[in-house]
């Protein structure tokens, strides 16, 4: 064993032995020790192998004793004077200095510590990773600090600690631009696990968002990291904890109670936010509030929309949506991030729908992605109140044209009856069309003109084609669609529905496979997180309950009679 390695292992063994350190930690009032002033001599003696004991004692003092601010300032000045001597051999000594609690000290002490870090990065780049890892770890509050911020307002002690850390990180990124890679690695490695408390997640996400102010070039990577980890929280929330019945998705009365009444949300917040909500859901709620607030502040300055900022942020989030959100099955809340940014400008919503449609219509994309994309389109159109009636009609026409083209292509194929499952994208598009027509037909005051438009869609051909979409779509959507088409006298679905029901009855000895039903996944069906929901509540449509739809029937029948005269 070499002399250098024996010294390092000797010092490391002291750090690992629990004796003196454990005793000092257990003491409620720790002893103050005077730091030596002959640091250069201690380092030289350690290098020659003659002063290992003094060197190890110094490390123990730094690690296990209280140090006054004045002593620390004087010692850090001596360290900076010896910086050129502190190579890789002194890693344990440097790591001990990096682990000192310094953010809550006096202004002079914190300034001295920052100057020490700057000199260390400039003269000993070898320690860059250690420095960054230690700074990122200090983003997290103390383990015994579990008090959450009130109304999302950062506490003064947290503000002070985070500002000190960000000051150093900002200077490191300027001094060593390549350190951004190390920073991202450290941010990923030290992101709180799902078992950590809500306050730890809250402070850490808040700190990551602050980095974007002085390192905007890292925005895409940091937002991707945050959203990825929020998705982990999302998929681990039991659905029963947030939604009593997943199958109530198509029930407008449930949507109305969730979206349409702001007072209901407040009451829900008062009674369940702290008592009944799932702990993981609460963590996600707090973090979603921070993300939505950041998006709002980035795109709106004093109430004025900043188009360039909106465009840049939209493309960053769209990329994250494609890689993280869209492929994730059964997420409940994180997808509302893209919903929220689309609400800032109608053109952004249109661009998002066009992007999704390109996914749907591209045969080279996996069918599961195409199905998810069309589900996002349908759910987006029936939920968002910032979607214009003109855009709804344009999407309906686009869906219908694709459906008719698909039917014409398959009309003479014997393949249809053999492999029902291969047409899942077709059935998903049909289901999306049926849902949009069902939910948005009341948005057109000129019902006579709208009826003429619906007649051009040739819905009768769609429901009577050999592919039989009414058999594969979700039953509740099918029955609601049948009611609307009967009301407008556009198509008669009930005969087909009855035939489909009879054909699905089990027959003894039959080898016919069961019909595959398209799932009713609609990602913007409900949002039950109380705190972050306050930023979204005004963006949801006041859905008309299915039980009240008959109130509009009289007017529609009058229009129909007029059209048929």
From the helix content, strand content and strand pairing, which structural class follows?
mainly alpha
Strand content: under 5%
What would you report as the Rg, rounded to the nearest angstrom? 32 Å
Shape: elongated
State mean pLDDT (0 to 100 scale).
Answer: 82
Described by strand count, sense and barrel closure, the largest sheet is:
2 strands, antiparallel
Q: Low-confidence spans: pLDDT under 50, at least 5 residues?
A: 1-28, 244-275, 416-420, 507-511, 544-565
Strand tally: 2
* Strand order across the largest sheet: 1-2
Kindly, what is the distance between the CA atoms of the first and last residues, rounded to a whole number of angstroms?
104 Å
Q: Helical element count?
A: 29
Helix content: 55-70%
Explain how this protein is built.
With 565 residues, the protein is an all-alpha fold. Helices cover 64% and strands 1% of the residues. The chain contains 29 helices and 2 strands. The protein has helices spanning 3-16, 19-26, 39-48, 52-64, 69-81, 91-98, 107-123, 128-137, 156-175, 179-189, 198-214, 219-235, 239-242, 252-260, 262-272, 279-299, 307-325, 336-342, 346-361, 367-383, 389-410, 424-440, 447-456, 459-464, 469-472, 475-488, 494-503, 530-533, 553-564; strands spanning 300-301, 304-305. The chain has a two-stranded antiparallel ribbon with strand order 1-2. The protein is elongated. The N and C termini lie far apart (104 Å).
